[in-house]
C-alpha cells in the first residue's frame, strides 16, 4: 500500500499537517507511514492525520509620521520580524511652512531630534515604532551627538541654534564605550579613526548648518602582565608570590626559600634562572629587587651540608672536599694516617 499525502485535508486553525500515525493521539508522525512510503498490509489499518502548531513569527511595523508636514512615507521593508535590523529612512515629507526637517523622534512633541534615529542609523526591532518628523525654524540648526557603536546618549540642551551661533562641544561623559575601547573625541565622519581637533570637547565652533558629531573610539591599551614563579628544583614544597603576575616594568622583590624543604643532606643557598646552576645568581638574592620584563622562573639552588668532624685531639681542619684532618705536632694528618700510626704503636 502506498501512503497518500494529506493534500485533501484542511488543518485545524493554527496547525499544519506533518504526517500519519496509526495512533490517534500521536504527537509525532510515524515514519513507516510517511506520504509516498509503501507498506505490506496484514490487517485493516486506519491512519490518523498528525497536526503540529504553526510557528508564530512576530512582526512589527516601522511607521513615519509627517507630524505637521505633508506627504507620505512608507518603509518598503516593513513589517519586520522580531529582532530584525531596520535602517532609518531619510525625510520624504514636505516641511511645515517656515521650518526645516531636523530629524526623527518617537515623541511627537519633541523639539530636538533623537540621534538614535538619525537618517541612516540602524535599530533593532522589538515592537511597533513610529518616528515623528521634528521641524525647527528655517534659521535654526541642530547640533547632534551620535554614540557611533557605543551606548547612551549625549544631548545638547541649547540645540537648535540660530545661524552663526557659537556652539560649545560637549564631552562624551554620557556614553558607554564598546567593550575594549575608550572615547577619544568627535568627528563629523562616522568612520573616522582619529577625532577632529575642531570638535575637541570644550572647544567652540560657529554653526552654519545642521551638524552631527560621531563618537570616535580607540582600543584600550593591552597591559602586559608577567608571572614570577619559584621552582623547588629537587626540593619539596611550594612557594607562591602573592603579587604575581606583575605589570611590565614593575619591581619584584625576590622571596626567600622559607617555604621549601631541601633535598636530604642539602641546604638552600639561593636562586637562579638556570635549573642546573651550582651557584646562586646574586641578582636574585632573597630580598633583592629586579625589574620584570617577561615571565621568569627562579630555581632553588642547593648545596651539600658539611660532613662530620673527626675529634681525636689536636686541631681539626677540613679540606676542600669536606674531609676533616687534625694537626699532629703542626703536621696535618688524615684519619687514615692516624689509624696507621695507632696500629704501629700497638705492635
What can you see in these coordinates?
- A hairpin with a 2-residue loop joins strand 27 and strand 28.
- It contains one helix and 28 strands.
- The strands form twelve sheets. It has a three-stranded mixed beta sheet with strand order 4-9-7, with no helix packed on it. It has a three-stranded mixed beta sheet with strand order 11-18-16, with no helix packed on it.
- It is mainly beta and 347 residues long.
Order of helices and strands: EEEEEEEEEEEEEEEEEEEEEEEEEEEEH
Helix-and-strand structural type = mainly beta
Shape: flat
Roughly how many Å apart are the termini? 123 Å
Mean pLDDT: 87
Across the major sheet, the strand order is: 4-9-7
Percent of residues in helices comes to under 10%
- Which spans have pLDDT < 50 for at least 5 consecutive residues? 312-341
Q: How many strand units?
A: 28
Major β-sheet annotation: 3 strands, mixed
Radius of gyration: 43 Å
Question: How many helical stretches?
Answer: 1
Q: Strand share of the residues? A: 25-35%
The multimeric state of the shown protein is single chain
Short description, anyone?
Helix content is 3%, strand content 35%. The chain has one helix at residues 335-346; strands at residues 15-21, 48-53, 59-60, 62-65, 80-81, 85-87, 99-105, 122-124, 129-137, 140-141, 143-146, 151-152, 161-162, 166-168, 175-176, 181-187, 204-206, 211-219, 225-226, 228-231, 246-247, 251-253, 266-272, 289-291, 296-304, 315-318, 324-328, 331-334.
Amino acid at each position: 500500500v502506498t501512503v497518500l499525502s494529506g493534500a485533501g485535508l484542511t488543518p485545524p486553525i493554527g496547525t499544519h499537517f506533518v504526517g500519519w500515525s496509526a495512533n490517534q493521539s500521536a504527537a509525532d508522525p510515524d515514519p513507516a507511514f510517511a506520504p509516498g512510503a509503501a507498506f505490506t498490509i496484514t490487517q485493516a489499518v486506519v491512519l490518523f492525520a498528525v497536526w503540529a502548531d504553526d510557528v508564530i513569527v512576530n512582526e512589527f511595523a516601522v511607521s513615519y509620521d509627517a507630524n505637521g508636514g505633508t506627504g507620505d512615507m512608507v518603509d518598503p521593508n516593513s513589517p519586520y520580524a522580531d529582532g530584525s535590523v531596520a535602517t532609518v529612512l531619510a525625510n520624504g515629507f514636505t516641511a511645515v511652512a517656515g521650518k526645516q526637517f531636523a530629524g526623527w523622534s518617537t515623541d511627537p512633541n519633541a523639539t530636538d531630534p533623537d540621534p538614535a534615529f538619525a537618517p541612516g542609523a540602524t535599530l533593532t526591532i522589538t515592537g511597533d515604532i513610529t518616528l515623528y518628523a521634528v521641524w525647527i525654524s528655517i534659521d535654526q540648526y541642530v547640533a547632534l551627538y551620535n554614540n557611533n557603536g557605543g551606548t547612551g546618549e549625549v544631548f545638547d540642551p541649547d540645540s537648535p541654534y540660530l545661524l552663526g551661533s557659537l556652539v560649545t562641544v560637549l564631552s562624551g561623559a554620557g556614553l558607554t564605550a564598546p567593550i575594549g575601547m575608550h572615547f577619544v573625541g568627535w568627528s563629523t565622519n562616522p568612520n573616522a579613526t582619529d577625532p577632529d581637533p575642531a570638535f575637541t570637547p570644550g572647544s567652540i565652533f560657529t554653526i552654519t548648518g545642521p551638524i552631527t558629531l560621531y563618537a570616535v573610539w580607540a582600543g584600550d591599551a593591552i597591559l602586559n602582565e608577567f608571572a614570577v614563579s619559584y621552582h623547588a628544583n629537587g626540593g619539596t614544597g611550594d612557594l607562591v608570590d602573592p603579587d604575581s603576575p606583575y605589570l611590565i616594568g614593575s619591581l619584584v622583590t625576590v622571596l626567600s626559600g622559607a617555604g621549601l624543604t631541601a633535598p636530604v643532606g642539602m641546604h638552600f643557598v639561593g636562586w637562579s634562572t638556570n635549573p642546573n646552576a651550582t651557584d646562586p645568581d646574586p641578582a636574585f638574592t632573597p630580598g633583592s629587587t629586579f625589574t620584570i620584563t617577561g615571565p621568569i622562573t627562579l630555581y632553588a639552588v642547593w648545596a651539600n651540608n658539611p660532613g662530620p668532624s673527626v675529634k681525636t685531639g689536636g686541631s681539626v681542619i677540613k679540606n676542600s672536599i669536606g674531609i676533616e684532618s687534625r694537626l699532629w705536632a703542626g703536621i696535618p694528618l688524615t684519619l687514615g694516617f692516624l689509624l696507621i700510626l695507632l696500629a704501629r704503636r700497638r705492635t
